[in-house]
Design brief:
By secondary structure, this protein is mainly alpha-helical. The protein has helices at about 1-20, 30-50, 55-75, 85-100. It is flat and about 40 Å long.
């Protein structure tokens, strides 16, 4: 169960990061509200996952899901640039996540 909590915490991290971008510096009500609710949910699920998972593993996986997910949403939906350097960075993050899980 802790891995399921961690997966959903990471997915909610993507939601709050995108909502934060869409909030235009907290000037738009609904994206700001979505950000706040998804942030609370993400932190709550992360806390549940950390009951059973090591801190370093849980936090690294959570931030990695959020980072790669936000990177992907930015490219697929927000028109952000897809460059070789950014792809390499995402690959390095995923590689780090795999190594952390195996460690």
């Amino acid at each position: 169960m802790p891995w399921i909590f961690l997966l959903f915490a990471g997915l909610l991290e993507i939601v709050w990061a995108v909502a934060m971008k869409q909030s235009a510096g907290f000037t738009r009500l609904w994206p700001t509200a979505v950000m706040g609710v998804s942030m609370l949910g993400s932190f709550g699920l992360l806390a549940l996952a950390m009951r059973d998972l090591p801190l370093g593993t849980a936090y690294t996986i959570w931030t990695g899901i959020g980072a790669v997910g936000a990177f992907s949403v930015g490219i697929l939906f927000l028109g952000e640039a897809l460059t070789p350097a950014r792809i390499a960075a995402a690959v390095l993050i995923v590689t780090g996540l795999v190594v952390m899980k195996l460690a």
